[in-house]
């Protein structure tokens, strides 16, 4: 346990080019699932000034109107009056992969991969405080734009928060960085004042800035050009924003645009669900769950629980309890978390693990886990 250190996390708005590509990909996935829950989708989006390319493997009963989805999603993110050339290059899922993920009880994983879930008792959301504060900044920034509370804001933006810790307790705000796109005529001094009043101070109410906190608003100066007009967007390029801000391990697989046979997504959601239930149950103060899969195989090839020395039971007992309580096959995860439904675009922005309504954010297995731990520990003791 270190006596003093700083942890940092970032977030982006829904108008950020990478995150907008994620939203397009998840909107395509949702449209495919509306046509039939058995759709298999691996959708990638690349976008730059005047051009959006949607590519991937899609097997669906009803192929959605992808160009319309792209136009609608860009418009809803706040970009209006721009014209894009939209190119769609998709084909059916490989027969080899389709065979591996065949429908039925023994549905195999759509690829190999390692995924991680994390939870801690630091906040009500069971996430580290820098993650919560960064996402709150970008949410409030977007809200200020949409409601007109701050005039002259445009959709692109990002935030970064650094929190100083002492013996694992957040004690002060070290720095805040907030960058937001704005209209060319917007006075930067007025913008900074309005952002302090309507975004920064409300977002940081749990740990307000002190006299030594460094607050940087648009540190590069003007930020008029944003979105695809200023920066190329790509799906899967905001992995840390989507998960734990880099403060927990990540297996490297992206989330958006993938159906539940892709354990990069379903396994990551299940691992978070497990970790959050362990901490919610009081079985640990912090917990990292790792799941590893092989393509075509239903059961994970490895399950690991690490409570960083904070567990009420040994980690191996928790691992046994997890295996007993949770169905970790792709079909099981799909059923448990309702991942055959078109729910993904609504949870795409501001971190996949900050939405209280998301199925993987529920803590309904806490009591069952406690009982399973008691049974497993008794079994170990008997031997």
TrEMBL record:
Gene3D superfamilies in alphabetical order: 3.30.300.10
The name this protein goes by in its record: Methionine adenosyltransferase
Family: Belongs to the AdoMet synthase family.
Cofactor: K(+); Mg(2+)
Superkingdom of origin: Bacteria
Biological process annotations from GO: one-carbon metabolic process; S-adenosylmethionine biosynthetic process
PANTHER family cross-referenced by the UniProt entry: S-ADENOSYLMETHIONINE SYNTHETASE (PTHR11964)
UniProt domain S-adenosylmethionine synthetase central: residue ranges: 107-223
Segments crossing the lipid bilayer: none
PROSITE patterns noted in UniProt: ADOMET_SYNTHASE_1
């Amino acid at each position: 346990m270190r006596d003093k250190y700083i942890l940092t996390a970032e977030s982006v708005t829904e108008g950020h080019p990478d995150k907008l590509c994620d939203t397009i990909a998840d909107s395509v996935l949702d449209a495919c699932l509306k046509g039939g829950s058995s759709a298999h989708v691996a959708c990638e989006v690349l976008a730059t000034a005047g051009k959006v390319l949607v590519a991937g493997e899609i097997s669906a009963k009803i192929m959605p109107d992808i160009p319309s989805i792209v136009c609608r999603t860009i418009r809803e993110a706040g970009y209006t009056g721009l014209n894009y050339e939209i190119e769609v290059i998709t084909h059916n899922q490989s027969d080899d992969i389709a065979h591996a993920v065949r429908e039925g009880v023994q549905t195999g994983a759509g690829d190999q991969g390692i995924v991680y879930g994390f939870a801690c008792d630091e906040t009500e959301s069971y996430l580290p405080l820098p993650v919560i504060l960064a996402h709150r900044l970008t949410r409030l920034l977007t809200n200020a734009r949409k409601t007109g509370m701050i005039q002259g804001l445009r959709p692109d933006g990002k935030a970064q928060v650094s929190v100083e810790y002492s013996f694992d307790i957040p004690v002060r705000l070290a720095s805040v960085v907030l960058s937001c796109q704005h209209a060319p005529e917007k006075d930067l001094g007025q913008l900074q004042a309005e952002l302090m009043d309507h975004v920064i101070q409300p977002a940081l109410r749990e740990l307000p800035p002190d006299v030594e906190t460094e607050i940087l608003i648009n540190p590069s100066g003007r930020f008029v050009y944003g979105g695809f007009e200023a920066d190329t967007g790509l799906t899967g390029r905001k992995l840390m924003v989507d998960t734990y801000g880099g403060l927990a391990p990540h297996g490297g697989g992206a989330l958006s645009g993938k159906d539940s046979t892709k354990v990069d997504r379903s396994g990551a959601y299940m691992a978070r669900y497990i970790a959050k239930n362990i901490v919610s149950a009081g079985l640990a103060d912090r917990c990292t769950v790792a799941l590893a899969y092989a393509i075509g195989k239903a059961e994970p090839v490895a399950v690991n629980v690490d409570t960083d020395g904070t567990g009420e039971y040994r980690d191996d007992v928790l691992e046994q309890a997890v295996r007993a309580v949770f169905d970790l096959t792709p079909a099981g995860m799909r059923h448990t978390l309702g991942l055959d439904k078109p729910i993904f675009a609504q949870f795409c922005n501001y971190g996949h693990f900050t939405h209280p309504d998301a199925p993987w954010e529920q803590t309904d297995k806490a009591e069952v886990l406690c009982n399973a731990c008691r049974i497993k520990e008794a079994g170990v003791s008997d031997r």
